[in-house]
């Protein structure tokens, strides 16, 4: 959470002698309030987001949703195409989702949403709901899907599903105004009048002695350098 609530949590952790990782990048997300009815949520969309949603509805797209393996296989294809198009280093193996899905109990399974054009998936998303909060996990759009605005229909469908499941809050799973301005704008305009930006408390550490603290700090530094090295190699490739 943000503001005063975070301050209270910080104070409690510091009293328990946990040390805040001051160098850690703060993480922020947007939470949407799903308590209003769907008509109110629709009217609360930013006018540009609502315009693109209506354009998607006129594209004669086929919308499917499900929890079966084929939905995840279709999603993998457009996810791979998106990664290749954007040329970013991806540290998340979405193929692991199928294995996770098989092991989840029925009430906790993820839900995949796909927009198809001419029988082929062009936009998709995966979300989950636990308790009273739904969370958007992954999203992807194929090259053809960009022109259909299918991602808007996918996200609206996920929101409607979460509300139908009884969720009162929808976590849009992270925003970064600087590194992902386009993603930030998309989520910000979707949440609009029914959303609020919140920040996480962030990582805290506790060590039994100074030697362990030094070793952990060294390990974290090596990990960061290795990640930057992989990113550099990927850009060169």
How would you describe this protein?
The chain is of the alpha+beta class and 237 residues long. It has helices at 4-15, 38-43, 47-57, 69-86, 96-103, 143-148, 150-164, 181-191, 210-236; strands at 19-20, 28-33, 62-66, 111-117, 120-130, 133-141, 169-171, 195-199, 204-205. The chain has a seven-stranded mixed β-sheet. Strands 1-9 form a two-stranded antiparallel sheet. Strand 5 (120-130) and strand 6 (133-141) form a beta hairpin. The protein is globular.
The radius of gyration computed from the alpha-carbon positions, rounded to a whole number of angstroms, is 20 Å
Quaternary state of the chains: single chain
Using the alpha-carbon principal axes, give the shape.
globular
Strand content: 15-25%
pLDDT < 50 runs, ≥5 residues: none
Structural category: alpha+beta
**Biggest sheet: strands, sense, closure?**
7 strands, mixed
Number-wise, the strands total 9
Mean pLDDT: 86
Instruction: List the secondary-structure elements in sequence, H or E.
Output: HEEHHEHHEEEHHEHEEH
Q: Considering DSSP H and I runs of 4 or more, what fraction of the residues is helical?
A: 40-55%
Strand order of the largest sheet: 3-4-5-6-7-2-8
N-end to C-end Cα span: 40 Å
- Quickly count the helices: 9
């Amino acid at each position: 959470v943000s503001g005063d609530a975070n301050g209270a949590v910080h104070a409690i952790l510091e009293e328990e002698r946990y040390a805040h990782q001051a160098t850690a990048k703060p993480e922020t997300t947007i939470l949407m309030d799903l308590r209003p009815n769907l008509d109110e949520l629709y009217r609360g969309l930013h006018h540009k987001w609502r315009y693109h949603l209506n354009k998607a509805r006129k594209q004669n797209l086929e919308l499917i949703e499900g929890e079966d393996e084929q939905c995840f296989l279709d999603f993998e294809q457009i996810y791979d195409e998106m990664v290749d198009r954007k040329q970013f280093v991806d540290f998340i193996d979405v193929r692991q989702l199928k294995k996770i899905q098989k092991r989840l109990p029925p009430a906790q399974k993820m839900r995949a949403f796909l927009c198809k054009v001419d029988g082929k998936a062009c936009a998709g998303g995966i979300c989950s709901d636990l308790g009273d909060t739904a969370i958007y996990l992954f999203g992807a759009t194929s090259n053809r899907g960009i022109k259909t605005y299918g991602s808007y229909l996918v996200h609206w469908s996920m929101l409607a599903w979460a509300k139908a499941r009884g969720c009162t809050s929808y976590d849009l799973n992270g925003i970064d105004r600087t590194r992902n301005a386009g993603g930030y704008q998309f989520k910000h305009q979707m949440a609009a009048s029914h959303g609020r930006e919140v920040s996480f408390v962030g990582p805290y550490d506790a060590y039994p002695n100074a030697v362990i603290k030094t070793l952990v700090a060294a390990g974290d530094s090596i990990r960061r350098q290795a990640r930057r090295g992989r990113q550099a190699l990927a850009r060169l490739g």
